[in-house]
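Researcher: Quick one. two chains, 343 residues in total.
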Amino acid sequence: MKSSSMAVALGVLGVVFILVAVLYALGVLQIFTSTTSGPHYKHAILFVVLAVASFVAANFARPKLV
Amino acid sequence: MGLLQGASELFPVSSLGHAVLAPSLLHWSFKQSDPSFVPFLVLLHLGTATALLVLYREQWVDIIRGFFSAALRGQIKTDTERLAMLLLVGTIPAAILGVFLESRIKSLFASPYVAAGFLIVNGLLMLGFEFLRRRKERGASRTEQESHFAEAERISFRAAALVGACQALAFLPGISRSGITIGGGLLAGLRHQEAARFSFLLATPVILGAGLVEVPELFKGGVPILEYVAAAILSGIGAYASARFLLRYFRSGRLDPYGWYCIAAGLVALALLHFDL
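Model:
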């Protein structure tokens, strides 16, 4: 399962999650929210956590020199 | 209410179910639609999370250290590092479902009748978990039976994700977060005490996170902050005492008594609500 392409994909996913988090925090993104205006910090925090998890997973997937 | 929430949050009997049922049954003038209800719940959750952090303070220091070591190295080398990653994997599904679905589910099912009904379902689930567990047990004494099962660090990542996702069921009033995660841990092959430990560790970031994101609600006008802080302290004391009790109880105890309690409490609550007693 360890491959550089998998690691890159997970890294890119992490960057996408960061972007989504910023959009929620700025109130630009209003998808799956209880109100349709204003920032959604709860959603933003969730996507930051998902980004961290993706970067960690990318580091695990990266081929290592033994 | 603080003591009730704190104590029942960790017991496998559904704190939310009790929080919905108790005011209706005891005729307390306490409405969940009241604007001060969310700040109240926030502080109670922070009280419970603080109690869990105090209880596992040394383990949390190791877990956080283990998380950073494993994350930076890209490799798991110790049991604590594995536990840290298991907790991350278990927390993510609950966090996703919590953020996107919690308010919708809670508003759909926040009725005392529904809470009583789900309390009965929760009881049946607890008995079901124990029924499935007994089929895997060997040995005469309880100590011998438990010795064949694993510690929290040995649970698989898939099982951790599944147990974490099961936490979302606790948004239904009457379904217990700790009950469902302890039950999931048992099915994944953990000892009762270890399933309880994994459940409490898994609950800490979720409860703390759910509380912290709502903190701004506390600073809105009309919140009787001193009374709420007192309730939060009582909630913390209740949670600490119940966690200590449960970890001791699950050395040899099972979920069955809580299952029967939930079924009985649900039936009694339905009868009381029906006859408006």
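DSSP finds two helices and no strands in chain A.
Researcher: Thanks, that's what I needed.
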